[in-house]
Amino acid sequence: MSMTNVWVMDKMKQKDVVVLNVLSPEAYAKLHIPGSFNVPWTNDANAFAKKVGQLYGKGKFFITHCSGLDCMAGPSAAKALKDNGFQAEDYPGGMMDWEKSGYPVEGTMAPRHAVK
Question: Is residue 51 exposed (0-12), middle (13-18) or buried (19+ Cβ within 10 Å)?
């Protein structure tokens, strides 16, 4: 399934959906999707999945994302979650697509008119 920003925005309205920004805490602080959570990708698939399970449990649908199409952290995180029994998909457009499309963003680099 290839997720679009419209699909992600719609899914975020559901209480059992968790959007995971898998970039560094520094990148998350600069710019992120409002309502998303930061769980950085670590290249240790099992440790990542364990951390997500500890924070949110397994009974949710996880949407992972990173910076954009050239970033592999989001797809790797989604695969790690699926391999560990979670329901997960990656939003390949990530922050670049989200911001370019004019959807709200938060963080220290967010435009003034963005959601605060």
Answer: middle
Positive or negative torsion for Cα 32, 35, 39, 41: negative
From residue 25, give the alpha-carbon distance in Å to each of 6, 41, 74, 86, 107. Answer: 25, 10, 15, 23, 11
Q: Say if CB 58 and CB 29 are below 8 A apart.
A: no
Q: Which of 11, 8, 87 is nearest to 49 (CA)?
A: 87
Pair 16, 59: CB distance under 8 Å: yes
Domains of the chain and CATH, by start:
5-100 (3.40.250.10)
pTM of the predicted protein model: 0.92
Of the pLDDT bands very low, low, confident and very high (cuts 50, 70, 90), residue 116 is: very low
